[in-house]
Write a structure and sequence with these properties.
Order of helices and strands: EHHEEHHEEEEEHHHEEHHEEHEH
Oligomer: single chain
Radius of gyration: 20 Å
Distance between the termini: 29 Å
Structural class: alpha/beta
Strand order of the largest sheet: 3-2-1-4-10
Number of domains: 1
Strand content: 15-25%
Number of strands: 13
Length: 330
C-alpha cells in the first residue's frame, strides 16, 4: 500500500503574500487576523520527523501559496511542491482560507489513494508503521458520539461544524450503518460513555462525532465521492477567500466516513496529543520525549502569550529531538 503525506503551509511574513492578502482583506472579517498565519519556525522539524519516524512514506505533497522555505531541498525525490494554482480552479484564486485549500486536496495530481493530511502544526512524535494510519485499506479512526456545540455568531468553528453535520445527514444514514457495522460503534477500544453516546445517537440525541485535531488519514476516492454528493456546497465554500459562517471544512469527509462505517476502529487515546502554545510549555516539552505519544498538535492561539519566547522554547526542544538535517533540507 502506497501512503502519501500532505501538508499545507503558509508564510505569513512573506511580503508578496501579505500584499496579495491586503487586496482582498476587510476590517470586519473576524477570521483573517495575522495570528492565524504566523509561524513558529518548526517546519524543518516536521520533515525531520517524517524521515525518522515514517521512512516508508511514498511522497510528501507540500502545499503552498507559492513561497518556499530557503532551506527546502526542492530536488528531494520524495517531495512534490504543490501551489494552490496547481490544483484549485483558477476562478477561486487567490484564497486565504484553509477550507478551499483542504476541500480540494483530492485534485492534487499524483496523490495516492491512501494519504494522511497534516496541518503545519501537527507532527509525528515517535515511530509509526503504515498500520497506524490504515488497516485493511481503511483509515484508522474512532467514532465517539458527541453533542453538536450550538454556537453564537462569533464561534465560526462550531457553526461550520453544524453546517457539516447538516450536510452529512442529507446523504448518509447513521442508523443504517450502525446495524450494518455495529462493532464500529460499540467497540471495546472505546470508553463506555462514548459507546452509550453512539447508541443514543440512534435516537438523534447525539448528532456529531468527537473531532480529530491530529494528522488524519483519508481515501482520495472518498473525497471524490463527497464532491459528487456535495459539489455545490463545496464550491460555495471554495469561492470564499476568507472563512465565513456558511463554510464547511475538510471535517465533512471524516464525518461522512464515520457515519457510513468506512473506517477501522481505534481508540482516541492512541492517536496522539493536542497542545496549545502557552507561556509555560513544560508539559509540551515533556510530551516530545514520550515515545508513547505517536503524534502531536501544537496549536497556536490568539490568546495573550509571549509568542517569541514560547516559539524559542519550543524550537529548542525540537532541535534537541531532531538535531540532524533530513533529505528534505539543503
Amino acid at each position: 500500500m502506497k501512503i502519501d503525506f500532505v501538508i499545507t503551509w503558509v508564510d505569513g511574513s512573506d511580503i508578496g503574500w501579505r500584499k496579495e492578502k491586503a487586496k482582498y482583506d476587510t476590517s470586519f472579517n473576524p477570521d483573517a487576523g495575522d495570528d492565524r498565519y504566523r509561524d513558529m519556525g518548526l517546519l524543518k522539524y516536521w520533515f525531520r520527523a517524517v524521515e525518522e519516524y515514517a521512512p516508508w512514506v511514498n511522497k510528501v505533497h507540500f502545499v503552498t501559496w507559492g513561497h518556499l522555505p530557503s532551506w527546502l531541498n526542492t530536488e528531494c525525490e520524495k517531495l512534490n511542491i504543490v501551489k494552490h494554482e496547481d490544483y484549485i480552479p483558477q476562478k477561486y484564486l487567490p484564497t486565504f482560507s484553509s477550507r478551499p485549500i483542504e476541500l480540494n486536496l483530492c485534485r492534487i495530481k499524483e496523490l495516492s489513494e491512501h494519504f494522511v493530511y497534516f496541518n503545519d502544526d501537527m507532527f509525528l512524535n515517535a515511530a509509526v508503521e503504515k498500520e497506524f494510519f490504515f488497516k485493511k485499506g481503511l483509515p484508522c479512526d474512532y467514532a465517539y458520539g458527541e453533542n453538536i456545540f450550538f454556537a453564537s455568531k462569533k464561534e465560526m468553528y462550531a457553526i461550520s461544524q453544524q453546517n457539516e453535520i447538516n450536510e452529512v445527514r442529507k446523504h448518509c444514514s447513521y442508523i443504517k450503518s450502525f446495524f450494518i457495522h455495529p462493532f464500529k460503534y460499540v467497540n471495546i477500544r472505546y470508553p463506555l460513555k462514548n459507546i452509550v453516546k453512539n447508541v443514543l445517537k440512534l435516537a438523534d440525541v447525539y448528532k456529531s462525532f468527537s473531532d480529530l485535531h491530529l494528522p488524519c488519514p483519508y481515501l482520495k476516492s472518498s473525497m471524490e465521492t463527497a464532491w459528487e454528493r456535495c459539489g455545490d456546497v463545496f464550491a460555495d465554500t471554495t469561492k470564499n477567500r476568507f472563512r465565513t459562517y456558511t463554510d464547511v471544512s475538510q471535517r465533512i469527509f471524516r464525518y461522512m466516513r464515520l457515519t457510513e462505517g468506512r473506517f477501522y476502529p481505534v481508540s482516541k487515546k492512541s492517536r496522539g496529543a493536542f497542545f496549545r502554545v502557552e507561556n509555560n510549555n513544560d508539559i509540551l516539552k515533556a510530551a516530545l520525549e514520550n515515545k508513547n505519544i505517536k503524534t502531536i498538535c501544537i496549536n497556536d492561539t490568539p490568546e495573550q502569550i509571549d509568542f517569541k519566547k514560547a516559539g524559542n522554547e519550543i524550537r529548542e526542544a525540537f532541535e534537541k529531538k531532531f538535531p540532524e538535517k533530513s533529505a528534505f533540507e539543503k
